[in-house]
Amino acid sequence: MKEFLQRNLGYKSISLVLAILFWLWVTSQGTSQTLDRDPTLTLSLVTKNTPANSVIMTKLPSVRVKTEGYNPSINVNEIFAYVDLSGSEPGEHEFEVKVDPIPNIKIVEITPRVVSLQLDTVEEKMLQVTVDLTGQPAPGSRVEDPIVKPSMVNVRGPSSLLNAVDKVLVELSVAGASDTLQVSRPLLFRDENGSAIFGPDPSAETITSSPTSVDIIVPIVAKELESKRVPLNAPTTGTPAEGKAVRSVRVVPNGVQVYGEAEALDNFDLLNIGPVNINGISRTTTYEISSDKVSLPDGLSYVSRTSFSVIVEIGNAIQDKTLYNLPITMKNLSQDLVLEQPLPAVSITIRAYPEVLDPLTHEQIALWLDATGKVAGEYTVKPYWQLPAGVEVVSVPDITYTLKAKAAPENPGDPDDPDGSDKPGDPNKPDNPDTKPSVE
């Protein structure tokens, strides 16, 4: 028997391989279709060259294409009817239905030949997420305000549908719950009547959001417990790298809800997170701190385990800079007074972050003295100044100046002879206007 099975083993192996190849070829033919003689095809309509930020608001119809000819190598699944939307603007437009040429096949008729499509502009906006809670918690428990992360989402869709979105919400049942619920839920879009919003094809997703779902914490606590939202503070230890400084320290979220007896909550007004060690850091750094590493006073608790983000913004340290030869002006000087000497140019030292100091010019700084109510005399004062935002004056010198009365004008004239007719010195004028000059 063994010898029989081993007889002509090579031929048997070749036959088995050929049988497998033939079976694969036969099964592959069932997944593709070829064009028979003179068929009428039903094709899906697709779009090409859709303008950026545009969307089709019309459900695309099927297209019947009558052909002549025969080409057995053509797969019907690779043939499409299409419309070209190049250069189209929002609104309703008619487009010619086209089919790319098929070798050895003649396109006799396309039905419909023209389709009317509505185009809309894709827009986006930030919207608040609301939580729709249903049901009642377990006896002896109560529901606190839910916490949504993130509380705002970016909603994107055709302008006509986006304008109809009145609410972005998640739905959650608290029926029978005795402990805090912490779940993730997809976002739903509703109009002002609370109805779902659909596009031309209800099966297609027309309005989207980023993110597509949110995390929800619904505090379920004993009825006898009180709650209070407490702000968060994050102290730091250490110093940043050389030449760097802390610009700001933020805690996200900026507060947390705590629960307990009213007496325990009364004197609890601030929760410290950390401290966080910033020693040697040279760039903005985020520290994640779990709530179970932050101690609460006795008798108080969180609604659930959470985490806090401490964001330490690091930038170049504040620097000082001295500016030289800055001019000073005098304002509100009385018309009867003048400066005895011109005001000198001065040097001042200012302080700011390097990105503010470096592009600063003399023209952005104004220095002046105010002579309102001043009389003749000597004064020593500090000037007033006006600087760009973020710039602070470190030092500015005192200015000493002297005011004096204006000098009387020279040759004011004789009050008894206002026109100056009695002044001697003009030989061409007679002393007596009634006497004519003699003629020699």
From TrEMBL:
Region named Disordered: 405-440
Compositional bias segments (type: Basic and acidic residues): 420-440
Matches recorded under Pfam families: YbbR
InterPro entries, alphabetized: c-di-AMP_regulator, YbbR
Domain of life: Bacteria
Name of this chain's protein: YbbR-like protein
Species, as recorded: Desulfitobacterium dichloroeliminans (strain LMG P-21439 / DCA1)
